[in-house]
Amino acid sequence: MLNIFEIMTLEGWSDVMYMVRQAEDTYVYDMLFVLCLGMGSFFVLNLMTAVQFAFFEKENPARKKAPPGDALSRTRTFKRQVTAFYQPRAID
User: Fold this and answer.
1) Domain of residue 20, residue span
2) What is the spatial distance between Cα 79 and Cα 67, in angstroms, rounded to a whole number?
3) Structural domains in the chain (count)
4) How many CB atoms neighbour CB 37 within 10 A?
5) Spatial distance between the Cα atoms of 81 and 91, rounded to a whole number of angstroms
6) DSSP H stretches of helix in 1-92
7) Assuming Cys at both sites, which of 8, 20, 54, 78 could form a disulfide with 40, CB separation 3.0 to 4.6 Å?
8) What pLDDT sits at residue 66?
9) Contact 31, 24 (CB under 8 A)
10) For residue 63, is pLDDT > 70?
11) Handedness of CA 45, 50, 51, 57 (dihedral sign)
């Protein structure tokens, strides 16, 4: 289990792959490593994304309760703020 966790976290997985290849003297297990890398990395990436979304939703509960028509006014406010930020300023 620890080796699979090491492969999924992408820390030292190539060393483990070369040890298995040397012990078994075949390339068949390379497919296992590629599968574990792909599926494991995908799982870890989705898990981290879900945790971040949950954190942001918990920090800003008012955002969930905003009415759908309010999105246009938020967009206009954001555009005004961005435009004001990028206005040229005099350098003293």
Assistant:
1) 2-85
2) 19
3) 1
4) 15
5) 21
6) 2-8, 13-24, 29-59, 61-65, 70-85
7) 8
8) 55
9) no
10) no
11) positive
